[in-house]
Structure formats: C-alpha cells, structure tokens
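Minutes, structural biology subgroup

Action item carried over from last meeting: produce the structure token record for Amidase signature domain-containing protein (Helianthus annuus). EB confirmed the sequence was re-checked against the source entry. Recorded below for completeness.
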Amino acid sequence: MMTAPIILVFLLLHNAESSKFTIPEATINDIQAAFNQNKLTSKQLVEFYIQRIRKLNPIHRAVIEVNPDALHLAEIADQERKNKDPISRFGLHGIPVLVKDNIATKDKLNTTAGSYALLNSVVPRDAGVVNKLRESGAIILGKASMTEWAAFRSSSAPGGWNARAKQAVNPYVATLNPCGSSTGSAISVATNMVTVSLGTETDGSILCPSSANSVVGIKPTVGLTSRSGVIPVSPRQDTVGPICRTVADAVYVLDAIVGFDINDPAATRKASKYIPKGGYLKHLKLGRDNEGLSLLRIWQNGAILIENLEIINFNRIISMINGEDIAVSAEFKLALNAYLKNLVSSPVRSLSDVISFNKKYADLERINDYPQDVFLAAQKTNGIGKLEKEVLMNLAKASKCGFEKLMNDNKLDALVTPYSNGSSVLAIGGYPGISVPAGYDKNGRPYGICFGGLKGSEPTLIEIAYGFEQATNLRKPPAIKDQV
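Output recorded by EB:
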C-alpha cells in the first residue's frame, strides 16, 4: 500500500506532466501564457512551425511560401516582450499567422492567387488586414495555398488545386475535397502548421474549407474587414476572415483586423458602425443562461429552435439567387483589371493578359488538365450592362424579401445549416457566418455547423458559436503519422 507522501509525490509528478506546455493544438491564450512564464519564445514557436511545414507540407500542400524573415520578426517580438513594449500586450503579439496567397504582403513573399502569372509581381503595399496584423504584433509566417484565382479560373478544377503548389490534401480523409478556395488556410491550422490563418470568401470559401477540415471559420459582414490589397472576385461579396482551431482564437484575429481602411473607404466606413464598443472578445461567453448552446440541449438552455419555416415565394427567390454567377462574372473582370493595373510591376495587367499567359505557358500551368472556362466567360462580359443590372436588382430583392424577411419576421438570432449549405444566401447579401466543427461521419470525414445572421450580427453569432463549441467539444485533431 502506498504511503501518503508517496501518493502526494506521484500526484505532483502526474499533474506537472499533464500541465506541460506543448505547441500542437495550443491556443493563443496558451501561447501567451507560455510567453509570459518564459516557457516559450516567439522564435522557438516559429522554428517549430517551419520544421512542421517542412515535414507535413509535401503531403498536404497547404503552404505556398514561408516568409524568409519570419525568424527575424520573431526575434524582434521576443525583444519587445523583454522590453515590455506596449505592443507586447496585444493578444496577437508574437503569434505566427499564415495569410491566403491572394492577400498582399509588402515583403519578400509573393502574392499570386496560386498562379504563375503573378509570380514576381510587386504589390504597392500591405493589404489592409495585413497592416492591421502587423500593428497587433503578429508575425506573417507565410502564404497559405488556395484554389487558384479563388476558384474563379476553371469550373472543373478541384478545390485546393493551383499551378504553384498543386493539389492540397485533406488531413482527415485524403480523398475528401478540402473544399472552397481557402483550403491551405484551413488545412494549415488543422494540422498545426501555424497558430492561426486568414482566408477570403466570395461564396463559401471560408465556411466550406472550415467545415471540411474541422476548424473554425468566420466570414465577416462585407466591409467589416478591408479588402484593399486582396486579389478580388466581387467587391460586392468579397470579405476577409480568420480560420483557426477555436472560436476564441478566431475572435482574437477578428478583433485585430476589423475597422476602417483608407484604401477601402466606402465599405469599411459603412461597416464600422457594426463593431461593438470594446471589440468582440467580450462576446466569448456562454449562452444566455451561462450553460452554452448545444443543439442537443437547446430547449433546456433557453434557446428556441424553429424548424420548417415557410418562406413565401421560395421558388422565385431561389431563381433570383441563381443569377449570382452572371453578376460575379462581370464584377470579376472589372475588379481584377483594376487590381492588376495598380501593381507596381507585373507580367500581366489585365484578365486578357492572364488568359494569354496561361495559353502561352500551358505546360507550366497544366492548363490542359483544367481549362480556364470561367476566365473566358468573364472576359466576354462588358461591364455592368442591362442584364447585370437586372441580376443585381434581383439579388438585392432576394436578400431583402428572402433572408432578411425570414430573420426579422420570426425574430431569429441565427440561421443554422449543416456544412456550408447556406453560403450563397449569406454571400449575395454580404451577411456574416461562422462555421464550427460538428462531428465526423462513419468514414472519419469532418462536417461543420454554420451559424449565419444579418449584417453586423457577429456578436450574437460569436456567442452562439462559442456556446456550441464549449458545450460539445467535438473537434479532434487529424491523425497524422510522424508528428513533429
């Protein structure tokens, strides 16, 4: 029989071992605590992720480039922390971030949307969201892979494919489509190749890869985060948001990147009114009765689940939404041409130039595998004409008479959908959504649950998503062999 002192020593050793800090799956709070307790430095954290990228990225192809200055930036962060500089008090200080390869960084990294056509082009400045990340003390670790041109080059290319990095691979089930275009952003955080990441969404490209790779993604209200310096698809629908392993981490990133940007003035000024005083972190609280929100316990927790709502003129509204591609195609050509012309230097200056580049370097681009039919359709457009104006009017009507009416008439806090099935509804109206891991099927394939709401409803959606996450704790890391 163990004596009391022996039992006490055993328990102390067990507790010390169980409380030992490890980087994989660590949250921002965990990492900041390790920084403050001198258990970890930013340089050590970056070194860990670079080593992990070297080992895992040849398999999963989630990262296009690693920032050659990342270690130097980490050393600066460590010195700032040592000096107790004011910036070191920010939550993202010293935290590595991967940004999607369509988000500009004015450094040694390329910004190419996964295409050779933009390799070695020079951007005029950091994207608005990157500037805000730097101001918060975050370290730009590199560029995340993506579906080439945000899935707007070819209708047959699979999610996660681009010419530069080739096919991204889902870490849970290799044959499962990693989904959307922010594939690298989702895969990299799921596999612990980075702490947090940024993705972009025009329609489903944050919500879908988050669901398919068992991570958390926030698609903000359009304009809440700046789109300046982001290779565009549709300024009417484009938005930038965080992809992370937890709701709390995603909210930390959201807090850092929202707000007015002089280079995206109209949209960011309009949406700034939605930012709550004191930011979003205060909404990381459990449900209205402090129990958390779970679909399994939704009634006893005080929430009301309304099913099978009748949508008046449903078929007509759906037919209006079906015109989305017509509008986006015309918007894409106009927006991309403007972006390319604004580059300091570039091999291409228009959509037409990109199409010609792909034809000229067909072997390099593997264009014979995935034709550029979406590009060609967009090139045929001629601005916003009569047809496009009619489509845009219908999309606005569909949002107002469909989603907004449904939410307002029934006094709903959120629309709940499986996977990212509601992404088009949220996309055409510029509405926010949050995807949270919700489980795995019998074959181990992940799926998420999406909470969507009206413009500016991020505080409510964060409370709901956080409550669901805390009540269920359904996410589990992928089973990766030869862990670093």
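Discussion: The chain has one domain: 21-309+416-472.
Next step: EB to file the record with the rest of the batch.
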